[in-house]
Amino acid sequence: MEKIKMTTPLVEMDGDEMTRILWKMIKEELILPFVDLKTEYYDLGLPERDKTEDRITVEAAEATKRLGVAVKCATITPNAQRMTEYNLHKMWKSPNGTIRSILDGTVFRAPITLPTIKPAVRNWQKPITIARHAYGDVYKNVEIRAGEPGTARLVFDGVNGQHEEVVVHEFKGPGVLQGQHNTDSSIRSFAHACFKFAVDTRQDVWFSTKDTISKKYDARFREIFDEVFADYKADFERLGITYFYTLIDDAVARVIRSQGGFIWACKNYDGDVMSDMVSTAFGSLAMMTSVLVSPDGKYEYEAAHGTVTRHYYKYLQGEETSTNPIATIFAWSGAFKKRGELDQLPQLTHFGEQLEAACFDTLGEGVVTKDLVNLMEGIEPKAVNSAQFLAAIRSHLEARLA
Ligand code: NAP
Ligand code: MG
């Protein structure tokens, strides 16, 4: 069989631990035999980040800006324990945070659903994609603990003379206070990314805040979303999809009653909390995909889970592991489908689709990694190790591409 051709390289970002092992296995078993793979390779494994003083992460993000589509392996975000384990020069920042801020992107997380894994919410039939605004609010706040009675004020001094001052509270005794901010430009980027992704995936957008209570702060989010939506209205009408705004509490109630199949755009804190709820209710973290989308349409695909450290330590001791590679495979397939679409290479898009279909074929036969065994219903699951699982997917893929 002749290998499928690519024109523009993918930005390939390698990572750490168990997912780094899986990365290599996925390439060897499911990609290199079928695709004449072109990538610009960036090793974001922790040793290389330390060696390059994290320049490699910035270079990988810049390459994504230039080439448009990236695929990323999970990476370690160092903490104190990792400093000693890897003998690091510095506690390098989260690569995902660095890439997100360079691309000014929004993260969309969606579960990979199967008929044999029933979500905890019975009426959910389609995946729910959470879009979390990843800037500001409580994550960039300032706080004071008031230890005595006194006056708390919120003050703004503009460079051109705008001066506003409001009393937050007259404290009669000890208490706490907090200042938060966001910027129009970040909210606008978030809105663009949400509407772009909706057009891309042909899904409705729901957006929720608490603008009845927060009449300036949350209201600004709603206004900006309305303004930005004007740019996408015609596309939405053409595709028969809708933009729907509602209050966060109403959104929560509606999400639970819904059938799924839409994008739920959330403010930073809401997205943090709701994405954990939605992903748990759908089944397994190992089946969650994640894609970072920039407001100018650059895409970085990855799995939502981490480097699966516990499995890696077992692997290092020579033990067999049954780590689920599905979300990482879907990062590759997502990237191939997008590259195929942008470069008008229908064969590459087709390959991405068949790769996903081969995963569903395998899972549909009940051949699964250990994490899925207790979630399966209506089928007798057979747990295999990662290598056997990939081999099973490969045989389905070969049959499909023959
Ligand atoms: P994790 O790697 O997501 O793993 C947490 C647990 O979830 C695992 O121990 C495993 O449970 C289960 N799990 C996750 N993915 C799985 C898979 N593919 N197959 C089977 N089971 C899976 O989270 P963590 O242990 O908290 O973090 C490990 C490292 O990953 C940290 O250094 C963190 O900084 C990094 N991290 C990176 C990213 C990213 O790059 N996007 C995201 C999150 C975390 P059992 O042990 O019960 O089998
Ligand atoms: Mg969280």
Architecture overview:
With 402 residues, the protein is an alpha/beta fold. The protein has 3 domains: 1-116 and 297-357, Isopropylmalate Dehydrogenase; 118-136 and 190-282, Protein-Tyrosine Phosphatase, Chain A, CATH 3.90.190; 142-179, no CATH class. The protein has 15 helices and 16 strands. Strands 2-1-3-14-13-4-5-12-10-11 form a 10-stranded mixed sheet, with helices on both faces. Helix 1 links the parallel strand 1 and strand 2 (39-43). Helix 6 packs across helix 7. The chain is globular and about 75 Å long. Bound molecules: NADP nicotinamide-adenine-dinucleotide phosphate and magnesium ion. Magnesium ion binds next to helix 10.
Features:
single chain; 402 residues; alpha/beta; Isopropylmalate Dehydrogenase; Protein-Tyrosine Phosphatase, Chain A; ten-stranded mixed β-sheet; two-stranded antiparallel ribbon; 15 helices; globular; binds NADP nicotinamide-adenine-dinucleotide phosphate; binds magnesium ion
Summarize it.
This protein is an alpha/beta fold.
Topology, please?
Elements: E1 10-14, H1 17-31, E2 39-43, H2 46-51, H3 55-67, E3 69-72, H4 80-85, H5 95-103, E4 106-111, E5 129-132, E6 142-146, E7 150-157, E8 163-171, E9 175-179, H6 184-201, E10 204-209, H7 217-229, H8 233-239, E11 243-247, H9 248-257, E12 262-266, H10 268-282, E13 288-293, E14 299-303, H11 309-316, H12 326-342, H13 346-364, E15 367-368, H14 370-373, E16 382-383, H15 386-401
The structure holds NADP nicotinamide-adenine-dinucleotide phosphate (NAP) and magnesium ion.
